[in-house]
Amino acid sequence: MLVKNHMLTKEKLTIVDLEETIENTLKRMGQESFLSLPVVNNGDLAGIIMKETIYRGYVEEGYDNFQDYITNKKVKDIYTNKVRFIHETDEIEKASHVLGELKIPFLAVLDSNNKFTGILTHRAIFNTFSNMLGINKGSSKLVIDLRDISGELARLTNLIKEENINISNIAMMDSKIEDNVRIVLKLDIDDTKSLTDKIRNSGFIVEN
After folding, report:
1. Which residues form the CBS domain (predicted)?
2. I need a labelling partner for 128 at 20 to 30 A (CA). Which of 22, 61, 149, 170 fits?
């Protein structure tokens, strides 16, 4: 899965310019309850401005009147240019790791010419992995550990096929057991007891 298939494109973003006032910036944030916004300069990403930074600046700079503060201050006075970039063709897993390590609201996305084309947010990554795990797909979930050898997954799915049960989603991840892999299945059935017994009797480990 590539970043470009899950990012918000530049055309869909709410953005602010370096010369924009903080008053206008807060209005833009309030329209969609944003906590931060990308900052652009001549169409290129310049950085990011966060609501928390705006209010902290008001306190630290000793203004007596908040309206004076947001009217006189501009984005260029408060924003940060510390933005982490990732490319459209990078894997979503890489982006997830970077966002998990850094305390930033989004990753800026570049195309093959290193031009800013959009952002990738925590929400986008969460939705992607939710879809991978089949959240809201299928009535029941089974978590099964199987040996990491050729043919084991096919043997498992054949058992399910024999029961005429549809698999609506399947995901694979690391198991806590050495030389095993963990499979998460979403199934279009309500009661999994009979199937669970059959899978266990065939030598697979079904998590409770």
Report:
1. 7-65
2. 149
The pair of three-digit structure tokens given for residue 18, joined into one six-digit string? 């370096």
d(CA 138, CA 147): 25
Domains and CATH numbers, the chain: 3-130 (3.10.580.10), 140-206 (3.30.70.260)
Q: How far, in Å, CA of 178 to CA of 163, rounded? A: 30
Largest CA distance in the chain: 74
| Whether 27 contacts 14, CB under 8 Å | no
Tokens of 120: 């990738």
How far is Cα 208 from Cα 155, in angstroms, rounded to an integer? 21
d(CA 183, CA 66): 55
Q: What are 182's strand-pairing partners? A: 145, 173
For residue 97, what are its two tokens?
């790791």
In tens, the pLDDT along 40-76 reads: 988 788 999 999 999 999 999 888 899 999 999 999 9
- Phi first, then psi: give them for residue 190, nearest 5 degrees: -95, -40
Mean pLDDT of the chain: 86
Spatial distance between the Cα atoms of 160 and 169, rounded to a whole number of angstroms:
13
Mean pLDDT of 1-8: 83
Q: Look up residue 126 and give its two tokens.
A: 């969460």
SS3 176: coil
